[in-house]
Amino acid sequence: MLKRVAPPEDKGLPLLDVKNLTVEFHTRRGIVRAVEHINLTIEKGETVGIVGESGSGKSVTSYAVMRILDRAGCIADGSITFSGFDLRAANESDMREMRGREISMIFQSPRLALNPIRKIGKQIEDVLLQHAQVGTDVVSEKAVEMLELVRIAWPRERYHAYPFELSGGMCQRVVIALALACKPQLLIADEPTTGLDVTTQKAVMDLVVELTRERGMSTILITHDLGLAATYCGRVVVMEKGKVVETASSELIFKKPTHAYTRKLMRATPRPDISLRGLLPEGETAKAKPPAPLRKKRNQMPLLVVDNLVKEYPRQRQGLSFANLLARNKPVPESEVFRAVDNISFSIARGESVGLVGESGCGKSTTAMMVMRLIDKSAGSIVFDGEDTGEIPARQFATLPLRKRIQMVFQDPTDSLNPRFTAARAIADPLLRLGELARNKVRARCEELARQVGLPVGLLDRFPHQLSGGQKARVGIARAIALKPDLIILDEPTAALDVSVQAVVLNLLQDLKESLGMSYLFVSHDLNVVRLLCDRVIVMRAGKIVEEGPTKRVLVKPHADYTRDLLAAIPHPPL
Amino acid sequence: MNESATVIHQAAAAAEKPQQNSMLRDARYVVSENPVTGVAFALFSLIALCALIGPYIVPHDPLASDTAAALKPPSFAHWFGTDQLGRDMFSRVVVATRLDFLIALTSVALVFAMGGLAGIAAGYFGGWTDRIVSRIADTIMAFPLFVLAMGIVAALGNTVTNIVIATAIINFPLYARVARAEANVRREAGFVLAARLSGNSEFRILLLHILPNIMPIMMVQISLTMGYAILNAAGLSFIGLGVRPPTPEWGIMVAEGAGNIISGEWWIALFPGAALMLAVFCFNLLGDGLRDLVDPQRRT
Q1: Cα dist. B5→A30, A41, B1, B34 in Å?
Q2: End-to-end distance of chain A based on CA atoms, in angstroms?
Q3: Span B58-98, pLDDT tens digits
Q4: ipTM value for the complex
């Protein structure tokens, strides 16, 4: 058993006490210090948020506490004391006892955290049996109880479900059930809601907070979202480059952030009462005045008119799916096809930005892909600048001159760049194919575009893996504007970026739009971001448009209940 | 503490510097990272050298028989000894490199072109292309491969060209399946969509965007099948198909020497066998090194 360094009854002792912790990673380029001399205390029953951007060492800190650093990483200095136990000195078998029973963790991707080929009920049983919490005779009862606790409907039936049969939000609930099954004293939630919709995020976070409070547990919430941390945590710890720069109560951190980095992070976080320019750090706002717009108002005809657009997919299978099993209770006649996009109509004027908002699976990406002419529609029409582009098969569209005029910025800058192409080659690709540009002028144009999007020209010969997330996003934007398109579809262009990078990229997009006179169709799930960039917003749900109108009106006085729900689900930090 | 921190930062800054794209530097880096790769490359250079200039530097004519000096054990005059007809084994082993190397290289090139392209087309387009390519691969896999190769050579005619074709055909499923799986993963990738937006035709996307990305894994496959192809060619020659005596070829030489092992003349089978083993060993080791060399993410 573990050696206690202090009696547990000592009330003055915090539950978790991290002192002077330094974590180092041995890499090809030598030793990299991910966390440097940080101090952190968690009291019993306290909820603490650790906030920072990628690379700040927030996850590494929690891995060090759980002692699950990978082989290259080691705790170089400092101490970790958990309710009197010295975790740094503990051996592996003691740590196995600790994990799950005393400290448990919720990971970022619930689907990856669950074993895909084991029933969820069995997975909960595994944890219970591992730590000998209950006897084998009642363990399945207990598992169902846990599922009930995390508010999974029909827990007895869902006990037999596999992770792929559940939605992302439900998977995360199962992960929470796993984490709480053995009644641990400390729960570490590492970005538990990244990748979930806002309404699901709210439900999951409310659940975590309620359950942990009920059981008197302490929680560490690791997140990049300052708003989320401030909403759900009592205290917020801000980390930057492996160091703790500020620790304050969540009320204070929004009112009086003392450290410059916290202020920068705060400014960059989109919130209801801020303008796009206001996101940038102080001092940088003044220069962001773009040249006067050179909008060519040729005619008042809208650039894009989408009329009664439909996209249907054949249903995958009608066999013994879990959904059908449940449907036996209340049979719903299922149609042969699934309508991803159901009779939607909208238009985009020249130089206008329109936001297309909705949760995952609402059909917004499918709509974007159809307008983009990457996939074919089932019915309806897409008229771009007077030409019925919807009638041209997607396979043929790629080589048409029209292709030049509709371009796209993708969601994941890493995924959308060919790993074998340098930045210059990536930007040059559309120029070489459709640019009608002499080959010797391509390089000059690439450099011009790089300057336009604020990418240092020296970086043009790098491969994507040698660039940061923000730089990759710039390459993606440069590629999209290379052919001077009329319409750019932005598919969550900042979802994979840190808030401070997001602020810069959003401003860049706004500048480019003003100077080049392009129209944007901005696809996003984040109303706060949409508000900053768009004149008009379309809210979609289950393939249909539920609300459409000027951004200001929709966000302040929404007509549809669904829009109200979306707005309410955005974390509202105590201000 | 501060000192070490600056060292770290300097190292990071140095690594951040844009790299000059020089194949030689990359090769040096790859070798320094993994010394086994260095051994493999050295061995490969030796084999390539033998194949290129072997016939011009060997001390004896590989075909000249000297019955007076038959079945002599290794000595200073005949490093690897002599065979039943008194031919110098060392010269024969060295000269045989070219033929074996050539058979392996051409058959791998052939199968890479056939299997690789069919595989990525199957993975990328799916549908009927996929069904046809996959079923062909399955059919080939259903045969015992060496027996199939024997059958192909027997049916097409007993020539070196047909050994190359047979070796390529039996390796087809390995290439087609790997290429199909790798292309399939990438067909919905963002950069493929982006390439389509940039006006690339489907064929260009296949060749310029997808193929380079699956080269690292194909390199490993090429290297592994090189060894396998040499073994296969030697095996066919061993049972009397393909290359005919008196042409020096490792497989034939092992076959010729096999009968003499019992009577104590071990060197006739041993040295060509060892050359065969070293070549296969070298190609198997080379795989990792080649992958590191063609994958920019591994280099930096």
Answers
A1: 11, 26, 6, 28
A2: 46
A3: 777 887 777 777 777 788 777 787 877 778 888 888 888 89
A4: 0.76
Confidence class for position B123, pLDDT limits 50, 70, 90: very high
Domain count, chain A: 1
Interface of B with A in 25-54 (CB under 8 A): 33
Phi, psi angles (nearest 5°) of residue A252: -70, -35
Interface touch B191/A433, C-beta < 8 Å: no
Q: pLDDT of A119-163, one tens digit each? A: 988 999 988 888 877 778 888 888 898 888 888 888 888 888 888
Q: A508 is in which domain, residue-wise?
A: 349-569
Residue among A403, A404, A415 minimizing CB distance to B191? A415
Query: B197 and A408: CB-CB below 8 Å?
Result: yes
Q: Do B191 and A434 touch (CB under 8 A)?
A: no
User: Looking at chain A, which residue has its C-alpha nearest residue B294?
Assistant: A420
The residue ranges of every structural domain in chain B are: 22-299
In a domain, A132, yes or no: no
Q: From 1.10.3720.10, 1.10.1040.10, 3.40.190.10, 3.40.50.2300, which CATH number describes the B22-299 domain?
A: 1.10.3720.10
The CA distance from A261 to A282, in Å, is 11
Query: Strand A379-384 vs strand A544-550: parallel, antiparallel, or unpaired?
Result: unpaired
- CB contact under 8 Å between B8 and A33, yes or no, is yes
Q: Which is nearest to B276 in space by CA: B238, B239, B227? A: B227
Which residues of A lie inside 8 Å of B (Cβ-Cβ)? 28-33, 372, 374, 395, 398-399, 403-404, 407-408, 410-412, 415-421, 426, 429-430, 433-434, 458-459, 461-463, 465-466, 476, 479-480
pTM of the model: 0.78
Q: Is residue A517 part of a domain?
A: yes
Show which of residues 138-177 on chain B sit within 8 Å of chain A, judged by CB atoms: none
Backbone φ and ψ for A229, nearest 5 degrees, come out as -65, -45
> Which stretch of DSSP H or E encloses residue A536?
strand A536-541
Tell whether the model's pLDDT for residue B215 goes beyond 50.
yes
**Considering only CB atoms, which chain B residues are within 8 Å of A462?**
18
